[in-house]
Specification:
Strand content: 15-25%
CATH architecture of the largest domain: 3-Layer(aba) Sandwich
Oligomer: single chain
Pfam families: NmrA
CATH superfamily of the largest domain: NAD(P)-binding Rossmann-like Domain
Bound molecules: NADP nicotinamide-adenine-dinucleotide phosphate
Protein name: NAD(P)H-binding protein
Organism: Saccharothrix xinjiangensis
InterPro entries: Ergot_Alk_Oxidoreductase, NAD(P)-bd_dom_sf, NmrA-like
Structural class: alpha/beta
Number of domains: 2
Number of helices: 12
Length: about 280
Amino acid sequence: MPILVTGATGTVGGCVVRRLLAAGHAVRALTRNPSAARLPAGVEVVAGDFADPASLVPALRGVERVHLVAMDGDGPAIVDVLVEAGVRRLTHLGHDDPSRPDDDPLESWHRVLRKAIESSVPEWTHLFPGEFMANTREWAPSIRAEGVVRAPFGDWRSTLVHEDDIAAIAVEALLTDDHVGRTYQPTGPEPVGRRDAVRMIGEAIGRELRFDELTPEQAREQWQDVYPPEIVEWFLEMGRYPEGNSWVSPDVEEALGRPGLTFDRWARDHVADFT
Ligand SMILES: NC(=O)c1ccc[n+]([C@@H]2O[C@H](COP(=O)([O-])OP(=O)(O)OC[C@H]3O[C@@H](n4cnc5c(N)ncnc54)[C@H](OP(=O)(O)O)[C@@H]3O)[C@@H](O)[C@H]2O)c1
């Protein structure tokens, strides 16, 4: 019986696919565009789009376990389609910040999906990670072209998490009964400053990199063509918390029995992205 991985062409989903294959499982991957998907040999690739929940039905044939990346569409309608198709176990990669109210524009969609999963799916595990180390790949074009990163808040620190730690928890939760009904908030093992992250990428690729600190206004200008306005303002909110986002979650260690992977390890894993 295949395990369906959604977001299989993405950051965490790609690691989930590789880990399931390595563990000897049949993997079916969902993508909106099968002809563009670069997935490992042996993966069955099936088209489907969260924006049209009925389009997920072919990918769900004979599937009881799903890794769901929360991206788009009508959350409760997607959950209904999954459950009607016979899905029993779901790992849900998404986002939830309990300090924000239900009607917060950045929270409400995710919270509605979370509640639908909890009320309908027999066996669920939520994964609400901290900021991904992989987000630093947005620096890749200027690193490759000029050896420079232009970003705000150089000293701001965040417990960035390696995508493969998130994937490892998802795979444990798909394959064993030990994580049913759990909510994990995986973070990295230590806070990493923006400027330090740039230095570690430079060390990994063997090139000295420069960090040019932008003012929030300059950052807003740089991001306005890349991200929706509410996301840009959310990023800029960081500056209001000079102590950074330094909380180290115990969840990677608790779920996997080992500490989370560090940023310098991530940089070494991703040399090809920056060269
Ligand atoms: N990035 C972070 O720092 C961070 C932190 C905490 C939580 N999260 C959460 O982690 C999740 C992944 O985020 P990400 O930005 O890193 O994603 P990502 O890895 O870039 O992946 C996006 C994936 O979603 C699939 N996808 C997008 N829209 C889809 C649709 N309409 N129908 C079917 N598949 C669709 C894409 O597949 P195709 O293009 O192949 O169709 C792609 O594989 C999100 O729920 C996010 O809220 C992210």
